Amino acid sequence: MSVLSGHTRVAGIAGWPVTYSRSPRLHGFWLRRHGIDGAYIPLPIRPGEFATAMHGLLAAGFAGANVTIPHKLAAFDICDSVDETAHRAGAVNTLVFRDGRIGGSNTDGYGFLANLRAHGVDPAAGPALLLGAGGSARAVAAALLDAGASVTIANRTRGRAEALARDLTGLRVVEWDARVTALADHALVVNTTPLGMVGHEPLDLDLSHAPASLVVADNVYVPLETPLLTAARFRGLRCVEGLGMLLHQGVPGFHAWFGVEPRVDEELRQFVVADLLAR
Ligand SMILES: NC(=O)c1ccc[n+]([C@@H]2O[C@H](COP(=O)([O-])OP(=O)(O)OC[C@H]3O[C@@H](n4cnc5c(N)ncnc54)[C@H](OP(=O)(O)O)[C@@H]3O)[C@@H](O)[C@H]2O)c1
Fold it and tell me: Which pLDDT tens digit goes with each residue over 230-248?
């Protein structure tokens, strides 16, 4: 059990809406596991009120916050300093309040790489093909490039992939319609689109000619087992599910706010899975 005292450290997740977020459950698990005098709460903050709310939390002695849709860009503007991860990702998802100042970072790339490694996959082992060019693609592409992988991107709207390639040196762009043939030249394929998520169509990706060594990662985690992962397992390909990315991306923030580096393990995964299945 976590205990609240006059010294309680408080953090939370700022979003609108925020009710869907699993982060309070994730951080609550770690707080209880480590018996920390701390709390992590949902912070429903309307668009337009983000800066006021964050400065209020800073003044109220909060340790910091995670930031989700639609505030990730607004979070950039309220920071006194942002680190390289936030610059490379073009968005802030973690705020740390220290000595009256706000520091911003982006932990999505860290979470993606940590999840790959937890599945025994070396991110630099071979070229990666990213499907999608949105916010999460940018963070993942930057992290893979920084880890030493060569990265190709295919996006429905080619111009968006090209804009990403202008920002991230070394990124190669191929046509969305060339994604299946491109698999042959890649060691890893990552779905960074919402395709396959509950309420969306499945991702159309024929794996029948994919190399047997291909690793298939899906950042979608609702459902846990997406149609893409089912198809990949059917072909005997190695799979990396998206939930691990979510769990790992929480580690740096928790460490900064509560002073303990938490562990991502099967007990935590089962705890969060139970919540996903209950909703
Ligand atoms: N596991 C995790 O921790 C984690 C973290 C972040 C995100 N995610 C998941 O990743 C997914 C994407 O998030 P995001 O923030 O990157 O979204 P985003 O910024 O809105 O980008 C979505 C991307 O998907 C593409 N797309 C959307 N619908 C498509 C369709 N019908 N056909 C082809 N491409 C389509 C878009 O292409 P256009 O440019 O052509 O519109 C865009 O490139 C979500 O499902 C989210 O839950 C997971």
Answer: 999 999 999 999 999 999 9
